[in-house]
Structures
1.
Amino acid sequence: MGKMRACVTALVILALAMGGVLARADAALLMEEPYGEFGAFNPTGHAAIYLNHICAESPTRLRPCGAGEPGAVISRYHKIDGYDWLAIPLVPYLYAVERVEDVPKTADAALEANLRDQYRRDHLLALAPDVEKGKKVGEAPGGEWTQLVGASYDRRIYGFQIQTTAEEDEQFMNQFNDNRNVGHFNLLFHNCADFSRTLLDVYYPHSVHRNFFSDLGITTPKQVARSLTKYADQHPDLKFSTFMIPQVPGSIKRSHPIDGVLEAVVKSKKYVVPLAILNPEVAAGFVVAYLTDGRFKAPKDAAVELIPGEPTTLTGAPSAAGAEDVRRPLPAPAVTPASATPQ
């Protein structure tokens, strides 16, 4: 088993080294499940865009990827040093480590916090500096910065991938490098899903739309995935595929299924029952709206991947269990996890 793991790791490294030459350019919507208490209250989750030929020169500057670089994930965040969007290399975004072979086999909250804090100290001090006052001087700050790295410890992630061209990637980089990057996050009408919709519009104009019927006009990650899937169905010449990145096994609580706006109301007794009592007509209207134009399920046949596009793919695997053989365990020092407000 040790030799097999070493061979798989070597293949991953080799593929990463050749990826800039062999792989076609792609953009993928990452539809990320909600987690934690906030995720239970607001189960719409998080949306980000993965670009396999665009890399992060810094969290606020994009550049073309070189050989061996698997790309970056870009998304809109709330209250991270005043920026509207930030870009993080793919492997750190998913696992808070820089090398594929250092992805842990399992994780608990202490290991997750340690890996995130180490990456912060190495690369993100300008965005999330050490605490300067009080009893926690020199320690990791609280806040939203924890959502920049280690997403796969907290959530299961579904990917919806479409092809791009070098010219489109250049246009994308120029547009986002030249425009002002000033945060104005709004949960209702200027959220992470709205940002993903804007990014995809650079490559495929009008491919993603709001749903004023079943989402009340609020853009949700699930609606972006639904629109993109429908667009691909209407354009059979477009190379479109799906994948799923499992949540890292361990003691960290599992993420919740992702829902749309009315879907969350209709499927939750704590919302729909009181609404039905107070206003049965409105409740019935919500149910009809959801059943008519709000249903969309995560793809069950999505390829299970640890690193999108690399030979760690476990096509058709039913869970993350088989992925453990290509992960190398890391020690878990005792660290108190930094606080954050998960989506």
2.
Amino acid sequence: MSLPDFLIAGVPKAGTTALHAALTGHPELFLPSVKEPKFFLSDGPPPRFGGPGDVQTYQEHVWQRSDYEALFDAAPAGTLRGEATPFYLYDRGAHERIAKLTPDAKLIILLRDPVDRAHSNWTHLWVAGLEEEADFLAACRAEEDRRARGWAAFWHYLALGRYGEQLQHLYQHLSREQVLLLRYRDLKDEPARTLDRVCAFLGVRTGVLTAIPRENVNRHYVEDNAVNRVLRGLLRAGGEVGHRFPVPVRLAARGPLLTLLHRTKGNRPVTTPQERAALLPHFTEDIALLQDVTGERYDDWLSLDRHARAR
């Protein structure tokens, strides 16, 4: 039986792709080339409807156990097997499935300031042409309606950042000793030290990994203008119907549109003080809960000063 010994279980837009890429370089660890198999997100086939692009993503789910186990068949003898699906922390059902099927698995969870995480999430979908709201706060206000219409978790900009609630539920199914909490900022600013923490937690040699590959970095700046609104409309339309076509056809149609949309490059926008002030009240109580649940301090996330939070 080939099941994972560890999971990078959260959270989206907090460095999970980079951590996955870094850990593949350790000779005592094996991670399959398929990132985010999402196996523990369902008990059967994934949904068949959702927001723009969701159904195409659902088609990528490795939901049958035989296919999931096959991902780890190539693991060399004696290595620890792992995978990265950053939605496992958010999905309460995944907690129960993990505890039932892999009760001894270790979980690595990267946490990021919830307002900055939400903004990065929105930017990701905006740059991909799938987000129709040019205003970040307007997109956040649309969240409840989108959730009611069955849009996938990646559209849950605010709910994904309520880590206190999520960890409180996770600890009802797995012991705290099985969970390593990291900060996105630590992975970015102190990669060697943070990677050693991960390796020590997993029980493999430290000092092997010293750097984080630059993964999932996008420097495209997508302006809200008439041409780009047309391009985004076409990309969203493709997201709605693309699942009906073979992957090569989808890529052939989507590629030129993205190239045009990304014709200009520049620094991606960061959260403004006004946006932060508007959204921070959504997370204040949960940050307090997170501190109670973990015994760690996250007071810096309550600051409106970006530089204070970056320290």
3.
Amino acid sequence: MTTRAGFVALIGEPNAGKSTLLNRMVGAKVSIVTHKVQTTRARIRGIALEGEAQIVFVDTPGLFRPRRRLDRAMVAAAWGGAADADIVVLLIEAHRGLTEGVEAILASLRERADGRRIALAINKIDKVKAEALLKLTQTMNEAFPFEKTFLISAERGHGAQDLKEWLAGALPEGPWLYPEDQIADLPMRMIAAEMTREKCTLRLHQELPYELTVETEAWEDREDGSTRIDQVIFVARDGHKGIVLGHKGETVKAIGQQARAEISEFLGRKVHLFLTVRVRENWLNEAERYGEMGLDFRDGDA
């Protein structure tokens, strides 16, 4: 049997559904999914198998107009992920259509296409009527020569298998790039930190979604089969620390319980999770923090 393997970059505006699609393709939760935009920071690779093909997904941060160093580094990471890929899939939202943001992405794609295979996935198709969908498909394909167009609902799964099968057949022939049982190439420490950050984001989305980050400080696999994980939640100001802790520590305790349950399920073993909240006023400008998130600090230079 001929095996195939390669990289597929999912690109699009923030909240287009890239992380949801990645998690569905892989069959496990490897990318942070929240209702807040711009929450995917690191280029998380999820690995999916389809027949004899191994599809390595590069989940990129949403493409948007960057304002801060962190934003610029995220956008650079997104385009870097696309440049490294064998196939690029542009994900757009059916009910939003050809927005200014999508037009800007198409303009960049024209510059960067360079003979690369580029497909279109129109997501959230359950939100619009068939006629509108047909018109959007036509408009998008007039705007850019996509090799293939897929109509999907990443959340419900409609059309996702068709996309997966096409990707599997379109990847170059060659040996698999990762072991068969591996679903992500990020270290477990980083995936665990992402899971905790997601819980922080969901709980505190009104107050400070982008002003905090989470790092795994220590990881100990114990003889009894359990794992002890120590994580630090970094915030930018003293006032933020109080928000994360909550009244009598109730907020951070709830975050810890939710994160522990998810990490434990993901690892398939009992987890002891200990969270500490620390103030680092300038963490958004520290090279080390960017490295922890899989971003290049220099990409944030104005």
4.
Amino acid sequence: MELGIGMFGDLAIDKNTGKIQDTGEKLREILEEVKLADEVGLDVFGMGEHHRPDYAVSSPEILLAAAASVTKNIKLMSTVTVLSSSEPVNVYQNFSTIDQISGGRAEIGVGRGSFIESFPLFGYNLKDYDALFEEKLDLLLKINTQENVSWKGTLRPPMVNQTVYPRAVNNGQLPIWIAVGGTPESILRAAKLGLPLILAIIGGMPAQFKPHMDFYKEQYLKHGHDPAKMQLGIHSHTFVSDNEAICDGYFENYAAQMDRIGSSRGWAPYTKHQFNGGRSKDGALFIGDPSAVTDKILHMHELFGITRFIAHMDVGAPDHKLMMKSIELFGTKVAPEVRKALQK
């Protein structure tokens, strides 16, 4: 099982003044953090796309290209690229460029987007939410496998024998993951196409998602794909500290960000009871000391048979020093214990 770190580039917001952290400062911190993730032997680094004032990264590709220059081994993926409001030709070209810079370490995670700010920003109509993703995924997959592309859709002009360069390192093909939040239609799409699936589990109890994973496996096999090539991942909020006071105090950062998001979605204020429930054995928050986080990841492997776990670590913008320590512990304490247990 691969183990990685994921981020959205949350900007710190002063609770007293409301002042938002400087974007450049945050981006430089992220690059230090991904460099450390590489140095401690983690397998994957993921960066998401957002177009809000409380996130620093609107273009994962640019951040990942910068990360490619300060890392040696870690895979670099988007978590996620909002494909519905993106141009598939540019998406492929940007990630194939990262792939060339990094020596074949680029991957794409695509999704429809739970945040919809990019649709009006780039001139797309939300009524086409599903159709845009379906069509653009079809084009992206064709570009990924064919150097010369002829394609026709309904929402984008056709391509007639067009060449797309540069090509990715591995015969021109990039790994493309489908990132979902639990919508059965999205899971079925990934299974039909035989594409790797990464499921965001950020609330409730992970066990509740087992039917989704079982559905994917069933449909993947039903559509004739090689079970040996099946890849399943989860992406969950994580923070590691060997100091319980720090883990407990992280509630302030976490709740503040949940409430910022929830204010536009009609969510009730996030409570300490929810936080503690999420941290419990059956909850979806991987927040605790290395031993507790190790045990929960191993439980996810036992429950779902996952091949990748992405620890989303920067919710609410924890202090940079605490983030560095969390990544260090994840790479030097959690990852070795998970790998050791899975080798038995």
